Fold these 2 entries.
Entry 1:
Amino acid sequence: MSKSPSVSLPSDANASGRSFGTEEIAELEKVIRSGTLNCTRGTAVKAFEERFAKWLGMPACRAVPSGTAAVHAAVAAIDPEPGDEIITTPITDMGAITPILYQTAIPVFADVDPETYNVTAATIAKKITRRTKAIIVTHLFGNPCDMDPILALAAEKRLPVIEDCAQAFGCLYKGKHVGTLGTIGCFSLQQGKHMSTGEGGMVVAGDPALMRRMVLFTDKAWGYGDPNPDHYFLAPNYRMTELQGAVAVAQLGKLDRMIARRIEMAERLTAALAGVRGVAAPKLTPGGRDSYWKYPLRVDPAVIQGGADALGAKLKAAGVFCVPRYIQKPAFECQILRDRVTFGKSKFPFEGPHRADEPPIVYDRAETPGTTDALARVVVLPWNERYDPEHVDWIAGVIRTAAAELA
Ligand SMILES: *Cc1c(COP(=O)(O)O)cnc(C)c1O
């Protein structure tokens, strides 16, 4: 392969691809000097919650220690009975699946559209049973699910929709923020997300009763401020610390700029890739605004010899880090779900009297052809707010050369 001079790309694993600076340090210093590092008494997490809710155009939200905790709070608020089913996607982070099991429900997997990598109303509809309790949709890589048909289906079946927006800050659908369209929205503030506190998360709901339940769930279900407070139900401590809150406040001040930069650079790459045979830019959802957590290339193995793996190998050899096949296999083929490694040897909640009248849950790759196709063809490029035109033009050149060599 012809060697173009290598460019060092910014990484979201360290300062090269993140935007932490004097603002974060100033907010942190205020918290440290206050001596209050806990959000029950402090002001930083509260300020972040207020400002993030405002940013979304919602009345309130709740900060939690991770995206996993956010999904956990959402599922707990829905309060499934043991053995109920929650429909989700096989292309997601395990942190969006384990909370379903912790709340004694069973994850059921709808297929994805092979071109957008997102679940659809049609694939969800096939998985609805009398035990379905909720639907989780994931706006993968920052591109929104096609929400109107999903919300219409959910309304018809009277099912709540949890939106996993961990990868989708600033992603819009018909002009509205994802996370505000369904019943509950979940966000992650993990190191590599659009904005970060190292670890962290948020949940948001328009329904005050659900919001209240999530606030209780994230604080041992203790009824602070009630006339006769008690621990009302089973709940962990999922409070965010003031240290995270301080960084979150500062990051939120930069969020719109960071999102705009990701979009601008991604659109530059898309324009540069026009006409490259065998490699397609992300397919955008009609009515959506992709906020590009990552930039997924779609490889046509009929044109590119060796498909995603071969293209990925060439990009890496040239210095463009990438992840062919993203999570490698659908979530239901991971050990925890394949072998049902849950609570002791019980295989709970997959098995037990609460499932006595139901058919067994079967995870079968043959039922998710879109997922198999999507994972086989995708090469995921990392992306962050520090990419500039020089980086993008270099990446485009490497892709163009690699595609030509493999065509
Ligand atoms: C990152 C991520 C999560 C989990 O978030 P953590 O903060 O790592 O717990 C959940 N869902 C999706 C889609 C994610 O990308």
Entry 2:
Amino acid sequence: MKKTKSKLTNSVHIGSAGDPLYGGLVNPIYPSSAYDYGADVLYPRYYNTPNQTAVVKKIAALENAEDGLLFGSGMAAIMTSLFALLKQGDHILFQHDLYGGTHHAALHELKRYGIAHTMADVADLKKFEDAIRPNTKVIYIETPSNPLLKITDIAAVARIAKKRNILTVIDNTFASPVNQNPIDWGIDVVTHSGTKYIGGHSDLSCGVVVASKKLIGKIKGSAMHFGGCLDAQSAYLVERSLKTIVLRVRQQNKNAMAIAQSLKDETKIKAVYYPGLKDHPGYAIAKKQMPGGFGGMLSFEIKGDPEKFLKKLKLIRKAISLGGVESTIAQPVKTSHAKLTPEERKAVGISDKLLRFSTGIEEAHDLMDDIRQAL
Ligand SMILES: *Cc1c(COP(=O)(O)O)cnc(C)c1O
């Protein structure tokens, strides 16, 4: 099927032509790891087997990208891309607020390979630009950020980078391909932890990179060496999940907005962070660059004891990760940002009483009832 203007239609049909042998509606699972070596050599670690390709076509369509690669985890997608685009002696500029795993990998892996990095506050674009060095080859951003949902102006960063021929990479996990398409704003490479919204059911691990054909070719060269590909069975599950991603994320957007608004009126809540709230500092930019919605993630600080609050929740599950159909809640100091030192956490503004909430697809008032009784 040809791509249409509708994400809903594309999510169902692109890449999912069905079974050519029996006329079945869904793509068969092709578990072969060995294929006839005709013109196109198919092999899992060449990232070109039928189930991998089906997923890539769907995500590329949703992200307005030319091509992509499917990995076994988000970190495989991110680190493979960075190692493919950088070499010894290069510098990479990260925005300060990063997913904990990426932050830790930057500190502990890149340096060992002779790749220098800076982490700078992207809220002040002038200062961010000043952190660019003559050997800066990649600028890496993440928006909305984890866990404070800070908004980076994607188009502004892309402009700064283009002026100097620097490549841009964005982690688009929190927004999902439904809400935000960074390539439309001039970004070169988009990564996702597909373990989150793309999988969407808290039952698989995968990662995705989408970009131009040329850049994907370059990343694929390294990806074949690093070998972080996804198997056919999991790829099929990802394809199936993607058929409902638009429905799921739209409901999650709606729920997150309703909960963020309700939490603002609760006396036992100190602060609410959600880019869809008009008093959020990134609201205007988010409204522009997230045409699909403000996302299903929010965070809030409570006045009381977070441990006691979490114990009292009945419907909402205390869990790491995010983006599933079930609502989950986590304390970043104990989970995503546990590896940061207290000083590093303070620098990015993460307090012990901060809770990160991943909205599921349940009824919003059931979720609010649970939060209220636990408060
Ligand atoms: C989870 C996550 C990752 C890492 O993905 P994995 O699938 O766990 O490897 C990267 N970035 C963000 C924003 C994430 O939430």
